[in-house]
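Entry 14. Structure prediction run on the chain below.
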Amino acid sequence: MLQAYVMHVFRRFIDLILPATCSYCRETVGDSAIPFFCTTCWNDFSAISGPACPHCGKPFESPETLTHSPDHECSSCRQTPPQCDQIVSVGYYEGTLREAIHQFKYRPCRSLGKPLAQWMLNNIRLVSGLDCIMPVPLHRKRLRQRGFNQALLLSHAVSDAYGIRLSIDNLLRIRYTRPQVELSGQERIANVEGAFSLHHPQDINGANILLVDDVFTTGSTINECSKVLKKAGAERVNALTLARAF
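Output returned:
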């Protein structure tokens, strides 16, 4: 208690001398408990709601979609079915949420992991029957550069909240790849092809797996991970991401 009080007083003293500014709106953060964000901006995240493709989670524009055909898939899933059985993204990768993820990954600001994970948990309901959670892994070189795996921090929170076993050393990224953000759609597919492997493939046979990552863009990384898991005998692979880009 004393330590927490001292830290609070110290923070207020620093704010008086060098007021912290919000990473998005550049106003002072005031009494916000979130690092680098004011309360107004943090509460402005856009959660995905309304009808969406039951396979890849892509939101449909029309509110009438799925009314008469709940299993109707988007054109992309009908043309090229994803390896993953179901993908759910919690928010739109835009505005304040995009800025928060950038700060989380590239600043890097590890302390944003807990509040981002809590916002994600507040806006989802997981399917039942999951056997384990797997974060999309980083290559060891990227891990050394960043210092942590953002998908692992999100996975820890989901595992703790739902009491589902967390597997952190089975799914591996065995090939160093260029950052997906630098590449186009087809380049992303080629970039991650053969980049993942399983350390203990026998543990996957018959399992229902939940993959966790920070952002879904084209789905190339999720698909490649799912392909490896399905090849090892996974019964079902679902995916959860903090945000989805369009």
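Residues 19 and 28 are 6 Å apart (CA to CA).
Filed with the rest of this week's runs.
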